[in-house]
Amino acid sequence: MQITTIGLDIAKNVFQVHGIDAKEKVVARKQLRRSQVITFFKALPPCLIGMEACATAHYWARELTKLGHEVRLMPAKDVKAYVKRNKNDAADAEAICEAVRRPTMRFVRIKQDTRLPIDARASVIVLAAQLEALESVIGAIEKRIKMQHRSSEASQRVEAIPGIGVIGATAIVATVADPTIFRSGRDFAAWIGLVPRQDSTGGKQKLGPISKQGDRYLRRILVVGAIAVLRRAQENPGKYPWLTQLLARRPFKVVAVALANKMARTAWALLAHGGTYRAPELAETA
What we know:
Blueprint: E1 5-9, E2 14-20, E3 26-33, H1 37-42, E4 48-52, H2 55-66, E5 70-74, H3 76-79, H4 89-99, H5 118-150, H6 153-159, H7 165-175, H8 185-192, E6 196-198, E7 207-210, H9 216-235, H10 241-249, H11 252-273, H12 282-285
Parallel strand pairs: 1-4, 4-5
Antiparallel strand pairs: 1-2, 2-3, 6-7
């Protein structure tokens, strides 16, 4: 029998069709992939199609109207009253098919496709060209950084510290040409701004937030790297027992700064005293 009315439940990739004929007999109940929608409706004679109004529904309404169908959009809350059983795609499509035929149903006006004015399109083209050029420049800079990293034995040793990476290692080595100007790793971490700010008086020591003094770029790189390590620790707590214990006691950001401080001190030790990074044994950190 010829389909006269269709309820179409739309989603990102899978669409549900519920179609009836003039005698209200169900003649189509199927799923369509996104790529099959236009082909399916192109093969049908003109019919009434109902959909719940949403951002993408307006697009599909315009496309199906081009094929000769009559498309009506309805508020989702109004269609909900026609769902006869547990909510699923098939039940939603059936409810849409029922609701679109109701004479008292409120319908949503289909939004027309609005094209950008010529000047706006030209501006977008210029911005796209600038973005493409910027990506080329960034690619060239990244290539140079990797070349410098491969040619620097010190940078490769620092990169082995979890959370530092190539960019962090090259930045630390380039910034700290002589690590011996710092008496200790703590002095290096303080120079970056990764130690608590002191506000002591009357013999009482009071520690506040980190000082945020010193090299802002290195501080940002180390904190971002520390956050990445903490994310891995949350996914695999058995591999990072001491971080897991810290996260259980202290806020995430506090632990991230503490880890960034530890990374800075470890990097200084490798640069000042030589050697290679060795991950702590699990038995020792448990």
